[in-house]
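[job 4471] stage=fold_predict status=RUNNING
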Amino acid sequence: MRRMGRTCSDVLEDIYMENSEKNLRDWSEIIAGLSPDERLDDLLCSGRRIIQNTKEFCFSLDAVLLAHYPRYKKHWRVFDLGTGTGVMPLLIADEVREIHALEINPVMASLAKRNAELNGLQDKIHVAEGDYRRIRELYPPESFDCVIANPPYRPVNQGQLNSLDGVARARHEVTATLQDVVKAARYLLRFRGRFAMVHLPERLGEIIVAMAENQIQVKRLQLVQPKPDKPSNLMLIEGVAGAAPGGMKAELPLIVHEADGSYTREILDIYNM
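[job 4471] inference complete, writing structure tokens
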């Protein structure tokens, strides 16, 4: 039977299929250009993709949780200390005005720049290779509204260092200590600016002291539990530069998995699922 006309749904379906096929071709060309150690992952965020190098440190859930922790404002300028693949700038690009990111590992810095360009965000996400222990030589003071950091979790004398140099530096304080991270954050932050970090609960005491020594007062804390009956293995913490002591809000724990192993509603919401 011949169709006498086309509905709006028919037209929309054709447009969707045309765009899907175009996107598939576009991503296929990018995949074809990757090196043997690289892969292309879907960020499940505004259609964005990210290239990762399997011989370097690949991002995980902690970076995603941190990216969603601060309560951003559209006019904010945000700084990512130790950006890695540049995943957090990609996740928050729609929430803020501008993002600067610094990475000491040249392979990862190059990858973060490529990822910004891959997603058409090179005018909003500015990646530089450099050492944040020398932050005063690289950026003007008190020029950002928010600093985020997913730093190495452990001192070099705790646990075995990974044989891959890039992974070792991401997990252990090989090139920068906790104090280095906090000092760099305070230098970058304007008065009343926010500093948010993901870290291990066992280092909470050190973090509070380090922040206070650098005129940052902790105001928010959220522990992260893998399951309802498991102890916390991560924490999200946020401080305010130049704030008075006291007034910290301990938020309800964020639970990653239900007892049956499925993701909780909170985690699914973060992933827009």
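[job 4471] summary: Residues 8-32 form the longest helix (25 residues).
[job 4471] exit 0
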